[in-house]
Design a protein that fits this description.
Helices cover about 40% and strands about 20% of the residues. It is built from 15 helices and 22 strands. The strands form 6 sheets. It has a 7-stranded mixed β-sheet with strand order 14-15-16-13-12-18-19, with helices on both faces. A 6-stranded mixed β-sheet has the order 9-8-7-10-11-21, sandwiched between helices. β12, α9 and β13 form a beta-alpha-beta unit. The radius of gyration is 24 Å and the shape is globular.
Length: about 500
């Protein structure tokens, strides 16, 4: 594991020389120390990124040249997939099969954006004009130095959702991973260096939010900010960006609904409900944590959901067969337990789970939890819990379901399940959400846009929309005739 920050292509000690512990959430043991970067280190990283953008080769390479390096990065990730996944499990707690899937997606993301980088070489667009004395073309150019702050729920994957398109566009970047899960981001530094990425194109500063994250958001040398995390922190990032009129993209929280109609297959519904909330211990911004079930199906579905959730194997993510690991930290564990207690106090029923699993006395483990009978204005129904906790309520008819689903300050994702595809399509269009799933929950593809409405964020990641986050649009207009303009001089 790396013992320094990755700045200007080199491993360097933090200016103040400090470090912070990294805890395995399954054992509660400190298994690593990470370098504690501060504002001084952010200054160094931004300066390196600035030089690399203003003077270095990366923005000046063709898209095809950048693509070759991005593909070597993808190959480097693939070659170390098992090692990186195991490190992700120790860092985050997720089951190993999930971590392997994540790292596979990391490599795929670099490969995908390599293709889009190549396409940039041929993207100058000629614009037809009403005045044939002029010609206009439009080109897209890298926005400059990007600052990225990423969360702990998908440590390397969320980083690469920003790193890969930024590099594909020709930007340079300073990446600040979560202090809870910093290790795979540092390993990415080693991989990009081996792949031949020019020095300063990617810089990685680990540290706390106040010590490293805030200085990055406020740094005048950064041209664009990309953030994934909570709404309160996203609001602060947006305010910091406003001071310098920086471009900003935000992927924030969610309290996503899953509407299940009475004609849905119960077993399929239960499977997708569980995948939508218990994957990654429910620590997923798009988790479908509000399940709305048509009244006639509600009793049978709830009974099956409680029974199947109780069968989920809980344990250390490195143990074979584990499907639900620990929450990421004691702080997050305490927050989730407090939310369940608040739900009880407000009248909710714990229909299943809600406790530490028997036999797991160490680690931040929690049974998959199912809450019912809560009011529509209750905190557990309206606010993101970010743990393996699902709230289930009945609805009367389609109009009632859509009203309840949209009655939220969030709008990241939503899902609908029914054998009536026309109804699914109708409800999908009625949802006020940026991502909608029909007869499933949570499939995510690098090629498709990701982002939300309302307080769930601004902008879109992934697909060509993710690349657009890191590009400026430039108009170039030429006067194409020898005839005098003749406005002032006749």
């Amino acid at each position: 594991m790396r013992d320094g920050l990755f700045i200007d292509g080199e491993w360097v000690a933090p200016t103040r020389g400090g470090s912070f512990p990294v805890v395995d959430p399954a054992t509660e043991e400190v298994f690593a120390q990470a370098p504690a970067g501060t504002a001084e280190d952010v200054d160094r990283a931004v300066a390196a990124a600035r030089r690399a953008f203003d003077e270095g080769p990366w923005p000046r390479m063709t898209g095809r040249e950048r693509a070759a390096i991005l593909r070597r990065i993808a190959d480097g990730v693939t070659a170390r997939q098992d090692e990186l996944a195991r490190l992700e499990v120790r860092d985050n707690g997720k089951p190993l099969p999930e971590a392997l899937w994540d790292i596979g997606d990391v490599a795929g993301c670099f490969s995908y954006y390599a293709g889009l980088a190549e396409a940039l070489d041929d993207e100058a667009e000629t614009i037809p004009l009403a005045d044939d004395r002029f010609s206009t073309k439009v080109v897209r150019e890298p926005v400059g130095v990007a600052g990225a702050i990423v969360p702990w729920n998908y440590p390397l994957l969320m980083a690469v959702w920003k790193v890969a398109p930024a590099l594909a566009a020709g930007c340079t970047m300073v990446l600040k991973p979560s202090e809870l899960t910093p290790l795979t981001a540092l390993e990415l530094g080693a991989i990009v260096a081996e792949a031949g990425l020019p020095a300063g194109a990617l810089n990685i500063v680990t540290g706390t939010g106040p010590d490293a994250g805030q200085p990055l958001t406020e740094h005048p040398g950064v041209d664009k900010l990309a953030f994934t995390g909570s709404v309160p922190t996203g609001s602060k990032v947006m305010m910091a960006a406003a001071r310098d009129i920086k471009a900003v993209s935000l992927e924030l929280g969610g309290k996503s609904p899953f509407v299940v109609f009475a004609d849905a297959d119960v077993e399929a519904a239960v499977e997708w409900i569980m995948f939508g909330i218990f994957w990654n211990q429910g620590q997923v911004c798009s988790a479908t944590s509000r399940v709305l079930v048509e009244e006639s199906l509600y009793p049978a579905l709830l009974e099956r959901l409680v029974a199947e959730a109780a069968k989920i194997r809980i344990g250390n993510g490195l143990e074979e067969g584990t499907l639900l690991g620990p929450l990421v930290s004691k702080g997050q564990y305490d927050k989730v337990l407090a939310a369940i207690a608040r739900g009880r106090d407000d009248g909710a029923t714990v229909a299943g789970g809600g406790r530490r699993p028997a036999g797991l006395d160490t680690g931040y483990f929690l049974e998959p939890t199912i809450l019912t009978d809560m009011a529509e204005d209750s905190v557990v129904w309206r606010e993101e819990i970010f743990g393996p906790v699902v709230c289930v309520k009945p609805f009367r008819d389609e109009a009632d379901a859509v009203r309840m689903a949209n009655d939220s300050r969030f709008g990241l994702a939503a899902a609908v399940m029914s054998k009536d595809r026309a109804r699914c399509d109708r409800v999908a269009r009625a949802f006020r959400a940026g991502i909608v799933w029909i007869n499933c929950s949570q499939p995510t593809f690098t090629e498709a846009p990701w982002g939300g409405y309302k307080q769930s964020g601004i902008g879109r990641e992934l697909g060509r929309w993710g690349l657009a986050n890191y590009l400026e649009v430039k108009q170039i207009t030429a006067y194409e005739t020898d005839r005098p303009w003749g406005w002032y001089i006749k």
